[in-house]
Amino acid sequence: MAKEETIAFEGLVTELLPDARYRVQLDNGHSVVAYTSGKMKKNRIKTLAGDRVTVEMSPYDLDKARLVFRHKDERASSAPGGPARPNFRRR
């Protein structure tokens, strides 16, 4: 099966599991176990419980998914000055 034949869903991360895996509740009500895609690992994108995400699934196994995108939190973008950053410098 080619890469372009995956199914994309949106959902909510409900639980963090070991080995960079997550339990995701999809918008249609199903719960799947998702792992972080390589580009998200490469760019060090952190995902926490409660984050909105997009997952890709193979039509052959609808219990496992690949987490491909973490949606920006609307609350953080509406705060004046943006999200707070710690005050330190790397040496």
Verbal overview:
This protein has 91 residues and is mainly β. The chain has a single domain, classed as OB fold (Dihydrolipoamide Acetyltransferase, E2P), CATH 2.40.50.140. Helix content is 11%, strand content 44%. The chain is built from two helices and five strands, in the order E-E-E-H-E-E-H. The chain has helices at 38-42, 74-78, and strands at residues 7-17, 21-26, 31-36, 52-58, 61-70. Strand 4 (52-58) and strand 5 form a beta hairpin. The longest helix is centred in the middle third of the chain and has 5 residues, at 38-42. The radius of gyration is 15 Å and the shape is globular.
Describe the secondary-structure layout.
Layout: E1 7-17, E2 21-26, E3 31-36, H1 38-42, E4 52-58, E5 61-70, H2 74-78
Parallel strand pairs: 3-5
Antiparallel strand pairs: 1-2, 1-4, 2-3, 4-5
